[in-house]
Amino acid sequence: MTERAISDDRPLAAAASRLLVLYAARGVRGFGDGFAVIVLPAYLSAIGLRPVQIGVVATAALLGSSLLTLVIGLVAPRHDLRTMLLAGAVLMVATGVVFPHVEHVSFIMLVAFIGTVNPQSGDHGVLVPLEHAMLARAAAGPERTNAFARYSLTGALAMAAGSLAAATPDFLVAAGLGRLAAYQAMFYLYAALGVVAALLYRRLPHALAEQKLASTPLGPSRRTVFKLAALFSLDSFAGGFVVQSLLALWLFERFDLSLSAASLFFFWTSVLTAFSYPIAARLSARIGLINTMVFTHIPSSVFLILAAFSPDLILTLALLLIRSALGQMDVPARSSYVMAVVTEAERPAAASFTAVPRSLASSLSPALAGTLLAASFQGWPLIICGALKITYDLLLLAQFRHVKPPEER
What we know:
Largest sheet: none
Low-confidence stretches: 1-8, 209-214
Number of helices: 17
Number of strands: 0
Shape: globular
CATH class: Mainly Alpha
Strand content: under 5%
CATH topology: Growth Hormone, Chain: A
Helix content: over 70%
CATH superfamily: MFS general substrate transporter like domains
Structural class: mainly alpha
Distance between the termini: 37 Å
Radius of gyration: 20 Å
Order of helices and strands: HHHHHHHHHHHHHHHHH
Mean pLDDT: 84
């Protein structure tokens, strides 16, 4: 191999190495999120919180995540992405250490607001916009969507494993440990995973040069980003009615589902979600990113609405599994689309500014959902979620079907 060939291969090897680190970090975080979203409502119920209070805690967690993500979007264009990722990992460690030591609802809300335990599954949280910006720097064109699909696949599979790990407290109790102590041990495990994430982020290169060229977080793509953010907000407001923690609580309340059974169910939902991502990448190459987002999302919402009316546990779980196989196929397509329709210098801000309204909007609905769960018909959160998501899909198609990323023009 000539010296020039070796030189040409180095940027490709560096980009591949960066992608692998980001995939690994997403997997570590996903594993922690996978058991945290199930253990969290069980822990809060065990210390005496009512469904309405649990919904308020979920709202506080989503609201805090939104505000932190907004701050990141404002400062990321002028700071090192690697340093900010490390700071986020430290916050994850602190969350896992502090959460088991608070029991009063006010302090629980404060920790949920500041910390990283998120009641919603999927690509959410303060670290996501930073990882998205890093991913887009390492992969361009058609490969960008594939990179986001692999990133989402890794996270979903890790969440599936984490969902299985949510049954660990039952085994610890059977071994003689107290129920609360078993839940607290899971939060300590969450903190340990934050340490692992920090070690992975240390392997990433510093990312300063491109962002420092930007005088403002958003420039020529401001209008596009704001329109997308408004639509994504509607989608997330809808999703907030059925965040995974509240869906688990709904299954606990309606069908008296055990923690072990819930962990197994959410394992399979995560597996189905995970393997939908590579399919979404292939589908988007054929029909486009926007069409992929819309035409997979609408059927999933229909199945969610049907689950609200199902009187049988098995049928309900089957409908929710089908929904899981379709409902997140828009995730890699959406992430890739946002990164494609803005300039490189705008990417951290675009990822953040489209995520923040989503998180703010989703932070409003869990408290409403918690109230609706106390109603005589407990399926209202699922119905409202499905109806609003279908509305979002139709609006997205109408507004952006002609706005193509570079590879589709």
